[in-house]
Design goal:
Blueprint lengths: L11 H12 L9 H16 L5 E21 L2 E5 L3 E2 L11 E7 L14 E7 L11 E6 L12 H8 L3 H7 L3 E7 L3 H4 L15 E4 L1 H13 L2 E23 L3 E11 L10 H14 L4 E8 L19 H7 L12 E9 L5 E5 L2 E6 L4 E5 L2 H10 L8 E5 L9 H6 L4 E5 L19 H19 L3 H4 L13
Parallel strand pairs: 4-5, 5-7, 7-8, 10-11, 10-12, 12-17, 15-16
Antiparallel strand pairs: 1-2, 1-9, 3-8, 4-9, 6-16, 9-11, 13-14, 15-17
Helix pairs in contact: 1-11, 7-11, 9-11
Length: 478
């Protein structure tokens, strides 16, 4: 393994420049013009390294919100309501919108019958009452006393668990839906691109913050008409490209898969490609012990259309693995993947609601890392030597949950190390691209650590690397 004094062909400054170039493409939702432009940047840089850039092309029906509004028509005049964000792949209205009485949905978000031919209003309280051990099972930490928060909460968790069943509302005949964030600050929920794991719902839906939501609920009580507008751009047969390249190692029979995704909405959600490109520059100059396969997959923000056939709980990398078994399954003279590395969401500062104020609460958000077995956990912590910024916990994949693109590797038995830090702003679409919450020095250190992981894996015999463990079950340790 390289010593700490190694000079790397990248720096915090070059990573910052890479992220800024990515941001210049605009929002990079799956298959959008901004996303396609970013993928072209990746392809160009791979080619400039003298490597062959290989492409998987998939077509899908793309949906993108273009404009939205809510207006309450009260006896004293119209009241405009600020929209926090559109609900992705929900639906659209005609240019004039839809006008109807708002009806608050009580109880489970499937009982939409009272809102037939009306606008359903759904309240989503912060998902803060369920113990984190349901979703997580902690292994190790640095510092050793660091623990995950006892209750998994925030907009991402809330939207993924408590989302309204919009397709049910559509089938009942509801005209539109207003979703109200509750027990979360207005600043934290602004611009959240959630929920992005659902298929097209065929009913327009908008998110509003708690302050604006109170106005909507008052309108429901008064039975005021509400006009909701959500116009969208649809593109049948939009293209999505996954890109990959191979750096041949001394061992040409075994591989290490290094993957990330290319689609997202801000500077940390999909900055993994910047780290992968930096790693590639290093290994082009320093021939690896084992063959390295770098995969930049498309579809993380359109999972219903970018999964392997038959996949249920899995990520977009599952489709890439399905299409390229010759690079990992070890059968019929195929390369045998002995390990995998997944890089997502690098350089995250911690921002939380703190007594109602949304602000930076730590210069480093907790680096959440899945390690596929005991040896991978050991290698991960060895790679952290020399770091000046470390605040990390490692996890077992638990109760069939494994967040991030490393899950696909784990599900096919490849022991992996997968960084998937999950800040509350992970899915925020904003003019700043959330750059005020990003630390390029931290991203640099994390990337260097992953180079060390690749080198440590490269020098470890396959039998010692072992196989991926199984999911742990029950109530996890926090």
């Amino acid at each position: 393994m390289s010593e700490n004094k190694t000079v790397y062909p990248f720096s915090a400054q070059t990573m910052l420049e890479g992220v800024e170039a990515m941001n210049a493409c605009g929002s990079r939702t799956t298959g959008s013009s901004g996303h396609n432009e970013f993928v072209e940047q990746i392809k160009r840089q791979i080619t400039e390294m003298g490597l062959e850039c290989k492409i998987d092309l998939k077509y899908f029906d793309r949906w993108e919100a273009k404009s939205s509004s809510i207006v309450i028509h009260s006896e004293t005049g119209d009241i405009p309501i600020h929209v926090s964000s559109p609900f992705p792949y929900s639906g659209e209205t005609p240019p004039e919108g839809v006008t109807a009485q708002g009806v608050q949905i009580i109880g489970k978000h499937v009982n939409f019958f009272p809102a037939k031919n009306k606008i359903a209003v759904v309240r989503l309280k912060d998902f803060k009452s369920v113990y984190s051990g349901v979703a997580f099972n902690q292994k190790s930490a640095m510092p050793q006393d660091l623990k995950l928060q006892r209750f998994y909460k925030g907009p991402v968790a809330t939207a993924f668990v408590k989302f309204p069943f919009l397709s049910v509302a559509h089938n009942i005949g509801v005209k539109a839906c207003i979703c109200i964030w509750e027990d979360m600050s207005d600043a934290m929920v602004e611009g959240q691109y959630l929920n992005f794991i659902l298929d097209y719902q065929n009913i327009p839906a908008l998110w509003v913050n708690e302050t604006e939501g109170k106005k909507v609920l008052e309108a429901c009580s008064r039975k005021d008409p509400i006009t909701l507008t959500l116009e969208a751009e649809t593109e049948p047969g939009a293209k999505g490209e996954s890109v990959f390249a191979v750096i041949e190692g001394e061992n040409k029979e075994e591989s290490i898969i290094i993957n990330t995704h290319t689609d997202g909405v801000n500077c940390v959600e999909e900055n993994g490609p910047i780290a992968l490109l930096s790693m590639m520059r290093y290994f082009v100059e320093h021939k690896p012990a084992r063959t390295l396969v770098f995969a930049f997959v498309c579809g993380h923000f359109r999972l219903p259309k970018f999964k392997a056939p038959g996949a249920v709980s899995d990520q977009a990398t599952s489709l890439w693995l399905h299409n390229h078994k010759d690079l990992w399954d070890g059968k019929d003279k195929h390369l045998k993947a002995v390990a995998g590395l997944t890089l997502e969401h690098l350089g995250c500062r911690e921002w939380k609601d703190y007594y109602g104020e949304y602000r930076c609460t730590d210069p480093i958000d907790v680096e959440v890392v899945y390690t596929g077995n005991k040896k991978m956990d050991e290698i991960y912590f060895r790679s952290l030597e020399g770091r000046t910024r470390v605040r990390t916990v490692t996890l077992y994949p638990h109760n069939f949950l494994h967040f991030g693109e490393g899950q696909s590797l784990f599900n096919v038995g490849i022991p992996e190390i997968a960084l998937v830090t999950s800040p509350d702003y992970l899915c925020v679409e904003s003019e700043s691209h959330e750059m005020e919450k990003f630390d390029p020095e931290l991203m640099y250190e994390q990337t260097v650590s992953f180079i060390k992981m690749a080198e440590l894996i490269g020098e470890t015999p396959a039998e010692q690397l072992g196989k991926a463990d199984k999911y742990t079950l029950g109530v996890g340790k926090i």
